Amino acid sequence: MDRYDLALIGFGGVNRALAELIDERGAALTSELGFELRVVAITDLRLGSLMQADGIDLSAVLALEPGANFAPFAGGDPEPRNEYVIRNTTADIVVEATFTNPVDGEPAISHVRWALESGKHVTTTNKGPVALAGAELRALAADHGVRFEHEGAVLSGTPILRLAERMFSGLRIRGVQGILNGTSNYVLGRMEAGLSLPDAVAEAQELGYAEADPTADLEGSDVQLKVVILANEVLGADLTTADVSRRGLSTVSAAEIAEAQRQGRRWKLIGDAHRNDDGSVTASVAPVALPLDHPLAGVSGATNAVAFDTDLLGTVAVSGPGAGRVETAYALLSDVIAIHAGRGALIGAATDV
Ligand SMILES: NC(=O)C1=CN([C@@H]2O[C@H](COP(=O)(O)OP(=O)(O)OC[C@H]3O[C@@H](n4cnc5c(N)ncnc54)[C@H](OP(=O)(O)O)[C@@H]3O)[C@@H](O)[C@H]2O)C=CC1
Ligand SMILES: N[C@@H](CC=O)C(=O)O
């Protein structure tokens, strides 16, 4: 029986949901998946660091009272010693789920670098490292014979990156368009129902959809990162966030939302990347008032949807959760499953070097 030891970096909504999943369904997962999961290290800004090579008692950690930290545990420290833990943990896989920094991707990019450099696989839901340093980190992973997996960086647990990578072989993808942010879509729907913007945002925060700074959701920088990831990974472009024009929800007033409703339209924050005839890729984020019969107009709540424009199949659309603690924890689990499935190839690649 294989076993993967995990180090969780950041212990907020998503990594807690992963810990709960392992704690509550570990035995069932083991028999379904053919491998065991164990958490051997956790670091978090407020909780500090905890390293236990024999496996952490997740129920004890999940039951910590607000304000408590890891100091009283064996192997515990009140400080989040991220670099020390990432480099020295006995974990096979580092799970990066600290906040997404849309400006420079730090400290998450460093977390991922330290893990890959020390020969550990990485799974992350953090969009910063993927959008802002994806090529470098993929190369670093290949150099060290490990994997850099990040399914949850776009559409949470809905597996569109792996779908595009594995199932679209032989197709030419001309463009990608969609609703790529759960919070803004949820907020727009709640404002249509009469809620104020602050109340709608507070609900999205409570439900675990919003970024640590929800401005990133509302003003489009979260979608900008996701458009960069889709453009680079699906269209083979080499974009940075500066290449993606951005307008956020603050450019739409409550009156315009109400007016659109009267006209049979619905505002959606749309991310788009498409290949031009000259081979270049144009990308944008902007609110658009869609007619109600548009396929994206009916996508509501934290559900997201992506339409791939392909040469042989026309439009292929996928819809599913775009945010949520449990849904995003599933993305991490799916990455571990992908690492497990690819382990033979990695052993082969490392031997070849
Ligand atoms: N929630 C969702 O629906 C989705 C989230 N994501 C991404 O997943 C990641 C995690 O999301 P989520 O769990 O919701 O976010 P949270 O804000 O709930 O959790 C992040 C955790 O990381 C901690 N943290 C921040 N900086 C550091 C640091 N330098 N070292 C150690 N810990 C740190 C935070 O502490 P503190 O609270 O004290 O700042 C917090 O406990 C984010 O990058 C997010 O963009 C992706 C898809 C969907
Ligand atoms: N805050 C993001 C979380 C997923 O990336 C969102 O609301 O979509």
From TrEMBL:
NADPH binds at residue 127. Keywords: Amino-acid biosynthesis, Methionine biosynthesis, NADP, Oxidoreductase, Sodium, Threonine biosynthesis. Its EC number is 1.1.1.3. Residues 10-151 form the Aspartate/homoserine dehydrogenase NAD-binding domain. InterPro entries: Asp/hSer_DH_NAD-bd, HDH_cat, HDH_CS, HDH_short, NAD(P)-bd_dom_sf. The active site is at 226 (proton donor). It catalyses: L-homoserine + NADP(+) = L-aspartate 4-semialdehyde + NADPH + H(+); L-homoserine + NAD(+) = L-aspartate 4-semialdehyde + NADH + H(+). L-homoserine binds at residue 211. GO terms for biological process: methionine biosynthetic process; threonine biosynthetic process. Residues 159-337 form the Homoserine dehydrogenase catalytic domain. GO terms for molecular function: homoserine dehydrogenase activity; NADP binding. Its cofactor is a metal cation. Pathway: Amino-acid biosynthesis; L-methionine biosynthesis via de novo pathway; L-homoserine from L-aspartate: step 3/3; Amino-acid biosynthesis; L-threonine biosynthesis; L-threonine from L-aspartate: step 3/5. Catalyzes the conversion of L-aspartate-beta-semialdehyde (L-Asa) to L-homoserine (L-Hse), the third step in the biosynthesis of threonine and methionine from aspartate. Belongs to the homoserine dehydrogenase family. This is Homoserine dehydrogenase. It comes from Agromyces tardus.
